[in-house]
Amino acid sequence: MPTKTILILGGGIGGIVTARELRRLLGTHHRVIIIDKNPVHSFPPSYLWVMVGWRKPETIQKPLSMLEKYGIEFHHAAVRNISLEKRTIETDRAILSYDYLVIALGAELVAESILGFSENVHFFYTLESARKLNTSLTTFTGGTVAIVIASLPYKCPPAPYEAALLLESFFARRGTHRTVINVYTPEPSPLFVAGQQAGDMIRQLLRQRGIELHTSHKLVSVDATSQHLVFENNQRPTFDMLIVVPPHRAPEVVRSAGLTNDNGWIPVHAQTLRTQHTNVFALGDVTTIPLANGLPLPKAGVFAHNQAEVVAHNIAQDIHSSGFRKDFGGTGFCFLETGNGRAGYIHGNFFSAPAPDITFHEPSVTYHWGKVVFEKYWLWRWF
Questions:
Q1: N or C: which end of the chain has fewer CB within 10 A?
Q2: How far apart are CA 22 and CA 82, in angstroms?
């Protein structure tokens, strides 16, 4: 059998699981190559713990070179160009040819696109930004904290609400009682894609903790000098600390390759994650999959993980010309940290019609420790 080369762009959750599963399913005859501009993988679900000081950055990081012990080639390089016609990938170090291509590059954060954005505006969607926010929180003496979802879609829809609840717990432990937390979202309800039960539960949790929720607030600009926000509804609230969920977009390299649609993301077959190009797959945050209710599948690591297993299985099945096709079923779960040693649990099927079938379990100590165990297991299992 001729040797096949599978290139995986991106060393996040989806890319790592794809590579490991391919290596397991294909043996050593075929090449599995993962490319990432960063030499180290960090575990995104733990960024909020870094924010409040529960984790040191080094405890949730693993060198991607560790994958080489499994027979996976790691190329520390930035992807510069994707040629679908030539079936090549150009990086800042080499040009590589592929038989199968898996795009798992995630979403770019474009905080600088917010009018008035400055270095005094915080976010927590990268490890470095979470660490920087933790430093600022340790010296924050109180006032109004604004958490603003700048635009849709964004990664991990529960994260801004988790951040608010964790911060309320953080300030309460420190005795910073005169702190007010406001959450602003452009959606009519929190976790709108997950349905009414999840939205109502989030509202209730925030209300119980004295956190003010402001729905249908679309951010226009930030005035860092006078410390106020401007929304489309003409509201101009003030803040002492601003935390934003930055606008997201697909990386430039996939947009310039013509892989994205009018919404700016890579459309894929919902069950197989195939693109319209032969032997080219995409998974995770860089993709868009419409649901029965007209909204897109949320961008979350659990979906990238499940999709990666499907993609790896189907590529191996195609190479071996045997076996059955595996489908991604749209199921997923999420722990929602609420502070005070508790977490809620959300799970369900987002492919259900006419709307996702989602269940939200109330916060408990058990679910918090479930997330702790999940973090430890994931970093051990895949590295």
A1: N
A2: 22
Q: Determine the pLDDT at residue 28.
A: 87
Q: In terms of Cα–Cα distance, which of 380, 270, 346, 335 is closest to 46?
A: 335
The whole-angstrom separation of Cα 18 and Cα 189 is: 34
Contacts 24+ apart (CB under 8 A), 127-135: 127/42, 127/47, 127/50, 127/57, 127/60, 127/61, 130/47, 130/48, 130/50, 130/51, 130/57, 131/50, 131/57, 133/51, 133/243, 134/50, 134/51, 134/52, 134/53
Residue 199: what residue type? G
Q: Is the dihedral of CA 251, 304, 95, 264 positive or negative?
A: negative
pLDDT of residue 287 exceeding 90, the answer is yes
- Give the chain's domains with CATH numbers: 5-107+250-320 (3.50.50.60), 117-248 (3.50.50.60)
Q: What confidence score (pLDDT) does residue 119 get?
A: 82
